[in-house]
Each structure stands twice: as C-alpha cells, then as structure tokens.
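#struct-help
A.M.: can someone run this one for me? Single chain, 123 residues.
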Amino acid sequence: MSNMRTSIKCNCGQRIIAKDVVQHGYYLRLFGPSFVYVKFRCSRCKKLGEQFIKQEEWEEGILKDVALEISTEEKDRFVNMGAIDINEVIDFHFALESSPDLKSLQDAPPPPKKTRTRSTPSA
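D.P.: on it. Structure tokens below:
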C-alpha cells in the first residue's frame, strides 16, 4: 500500500488543482524530511489555504484536474434535465419500496411529471 497523496483538498472539501495554486515552492531542511509548500485560493469558498507535503510524497499529478467520465453530450443532457426536486426523490423512494428488484425499476416507464401549483393565502 502506497502512502502517496492523491490530491490536495481545501477545508470545505473542494479538490485543489493547478489553477487554484497561488504559490508553490520547496522548504528544504538539513535534518528530517523536506517539504513542498503549496499556497492556494479555493475555487469554491474563495479562502486562502496552504499545505506542506513531504517531498517524497509529492508528484506533479496531484494538481492535475481529473478527466470527466462522461461525454459533453451526456453532460449537456444532465444540465438540461435540471436539479432533482424533492417530489422526484419521494416518488423514487416509493418506487424502490414497492419494487421487488432493481431490474423491474429499469424496465418500468418513468412516472408522469406532476405539475404542482402553489396556493397563496388570500388576504
């Protein structure tokens, strides 16, 4: 099992990539391990952060962006579908509850879209 680090993460959980790095350098010591210093600004929360990584654990691939596993057409289709609303989650929950196995869910037609109107109290 390797003790190599695979990524640098901000405190908010966002993965840090090369475009987020503000400064990076080496902290060399005569005794003990030397370190690579990485100062970054998180692309999600915009906070500054820094990390020292042991030089033997450092590799340039740590700051490379992860390739997407979906094509651009699939990504566009998901974006056009919009966010999953709470009613879809509830419908899926009940479909899972009443289904004997996952294969029957895959073969089942999707439930009809419900249009919900919001009633506002009259004054």
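A.M.: thanks! Strands lie at 8-9, 15-16, 21-27, 35-41, 48-54.
D.P.: also worth noting: Residues 86-98 form the longest helix (13 residues).
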